[in-house]
Amino acid sequence: MDISRRAPKPPQRPLTTTMHDSGTLRRQQPNKPSTPKASDALPLPLYLTNAVFFTLFFSVAYYLLHRWRDKIRNSTPLHLVTLPEIAAIVSLIASFIYLLGFFGIDFVQSFISRASHDAWDLDNHHNFLIEDERDPRRTPPQQPQPAPPHPEPLISTLSSEEDEEIVKSVLVGKIASHSLESQLGDCKRAASIRREALQRITGRSVQGLPLEGFDYASILGQCCEMPIGYVQIPVGIAGPLLLDGFEYSVPMATTEGCLVASTNRGCKAIHVSGGATSTLLRDGMTRAPVVRFASAKRASELKFFVEDPVNFDALSVVFNRSSRFARLQSIHCSLAGKNLYMRFTCSTGDAMGMNMVSKGVQNVLDFLQTDFPDMDVIGISGNFCSDKKPAAVNWIEGRGKSVVCEAIIKEEVVKKVLKTNVAALVELNMLKNLAGSAVAGALGGFNAHASNIVSAIFIATGQDPAQNIESSHCITMIEALNDGKDLHVSVTMPSIEVGTIGGGTQLASQSACLNLLGVKGASKESPGSNSRLLATIVAGAVLAGELSLMSAIAAGQLVRSHMKYNRSSRDMTKISS
Ligand code: ADP
Q: What is the sign, positive or negative, of the torsion defined by CA atoms of 521, 524, 528, 534?
């Protein structure tokens, strides 16, 4: 029996911990938030103190009853007590108080919390009824009230009397908060005033959210509206990742302990085994408008028209007018009755390409309207694209960059670096990533934690984090080689959506991370090569992450390593004070 894979023992207290594939160890709160209990304050393990006091209580009770019977038999007055009897009485009282405190308070607490939850449920139920039924006889919904003031003091960042006046104008509605940038012509000042107005309206401090040290002009009209500050996310470095003969230091923005360390270990295993190899299978961003006709017959006429190779050249000329970099590759149609969904696919150079493809689609729709005047354009996006939603079409057809990345890991590396063995990894992959995901009805989720690595690189390099959904589609294969001595590991990712120009990629920090990878901005020599390289690096890093997490699970190390990296031993009360 492989004892290394045994599940960790459940902890003693009812507060249990759960391990997620994402690598996070979290406290479970099955139905309701756990309330602190008096017993939580005990210095010794609970099972020990319970056992001691139980034993004490029953043994002294037995002793005293025994003594009582003897005294009655010998006609000794009951109030004459010896020293051992006094000690026994004190012990009985002490253990009784302990047991009452422990079980009694729990018992009482269960009633109190049940009552408060019932009240909460009733309140919410009532609110839902008001929302859903719109019954005029019910109490009219309350006007939203600002949250009650927080005890934390509101610290102003305003620098002048003039700013104070503008804050007051925002508060009384004379100046719209969203127009501060255009009215003041100073993005940082606008953010500072908006932030101050927000603090006063809500009565809540945002002191921990930094204001200084950010170029607010760089996000104007591009990345974020109505800024009041920025969130700091640490960037760790994994690598070097040896991919296609080149070394990359991979920046990962994350607050999840263990993730960078684990990916780093995977990079090491790949490096000492000679590196990974990637292949870009296809590169095409998609957009699928939905158009409606009076009949399904008419909708199918347009389908046949756009899918006819004879018409492709004319349509691609119209489409490609949208940008120097947009090149139409295909149009794939699907019908739902009299509604037609046309999935346009095009290459987009180094841009992730959503704007580009949308512009091209608009050109084609305008063009088609001449021959199909009865075509009713319902929406430029009809969800057959499919952007930022789990969808089989991306998993099967691909979206953005489709990449496969592989490595052969030598047996001694599996043992020395990954601390497991080939057979255990192959078996775990089969039962977890393949069979387990099939049991779960997964869609593109045949992997251990691809989204962990994808999200961390996306945030570091200014990609759209919402596209992590389809970009994390991945099937991880782990197969034995050379009679089970070596390991072939691969990740196949059909829809990695990345760009190195546009969106958040041009911001200073994100651009620095792209620069570190050597893929900053648009490639002058070969447009599209930077974004394609970035997609292969994402896949290479996912390969490293998969290898390391799978090994940790196979070796039964997952809980131990998370306790080390996710659980700081620092006294948080001292840090906060
Ligand atoms: P997206 O389509 O990903 O939303 P944007 O439209 O925001 O991207 O940015 C792409 C812009 O960058 C376009 O205006 C395009 O003309 C320009 N551009 C310059 N060089 C390149 C390149 N090599 N690849 C793609 N776009 C480029």
A: negative
